[in-house]
Design goal:
Blueprint: H1 3-32, H2 40-46, H3 49-69, H4 75-102, H5 107-127, H6 136-155, H7 159-186, H8 193-223
Helix pairs in contact: 1-4, 1-8, 3-4, 4-8, 5-7, 5-8, 6-7, 7-8
């Protein structure tokens, strides 16, 4: 089995685990958490759950690092770490999924939109004859810019600013998807498939979270 097949299978497995974890925990939060709050959107940022989210983020980063380090280890270890990473990521996303469920947002639509945004640049990154790994410094700069915006958004969580940040982040991740897919094709060895999976999974996740937030804003405006 070549690296492409391994990356594709690993990517969809990670998405399945993340979707399962986020939906199950989201349903639990809808019943146990959301009824106690009135300002649903702001709770993404300022509720007591922010502490939980920070802890989960730290765990997610550690697991992602372990996935990268496991590139040359036993396949069973790779699969275990990838599964754990995806499940923890689902827990990270679950508060937003809970809010989406409470507002009757169709999460499948968010997945479909994310898929469309994700797979188009992925195809371009794969079929192009140009080696996009030369974009490395430019991509790193875009990532740093996205992180800075997200940190500012954490301390300035207004609806309008968050909407702007969400759109900008989605745009930033379009060339990043192209870069990562191209790097998988040109630079990674077959045994490094988990590195490609984690990269693409994080690309998809960042786009999905921002698309879901935009849909939450739309649903909230309709109900207000």
């Amino acid at each position: 089995m070549g690296i492409v097949n391994k990356v594709v299978l690993g990517f969809f497995w990670a998405l399945t685990c993340m979707a399962f974890s986020s939906y199950v925990l989201g349903k639990i939060l809808v019943g146990a958490w959301l009824p106690w709050y009135t300002d649903l959107l702001n709770q993404i940022f300022i509720s007591n759950f922010i502490i939980t989210l920070i802890v989960l983020t730290i765990v997610m980063v550690i697991l992602a690092y372990l996935c990268y380090r496991s590139a040359h280890q036993n396949p069973g270890i790779k699969i275990f770490l990838l599964t754990l990473f995806a499940l923890v990521t689902g827990a990270f996303v679950s508060p937003m999924v809970a809010i989406a469920l409470a507002l009757d947002v169709d999460i499948a639509v968010a997945f479909a939109i994310t898929g469309g945004i994700f797979f188009f640049p992925a195809i371009i990154g794969w079929v192009t004859n140009k080696d996009l790994t030369e974009w490395r410094n430019w991509i790193l700069g875009l990532l740093i810019f996205a992180i800075i915006l997200s940190v500012i958004n954490l301390f300035y969580p207004t609806t309008s600013f968050t909407l702007i940040v969400s759109i900008v982040v989605v745009i930033i991740f379009v060339p990043l998807v192209m870069y990562d897919v191209n790097r998988i094709r040109n630079k990674l060895d077959e045994e490094e498939w988990i590195v490609g999976v984690v990269d693409l999974f994080l690309d998809f996740l960042n786009i999905f979270v921002r698309i879901l937030y935009i849909l939450i804003l739309i649903a909230s405006e309709k109900k207000s």
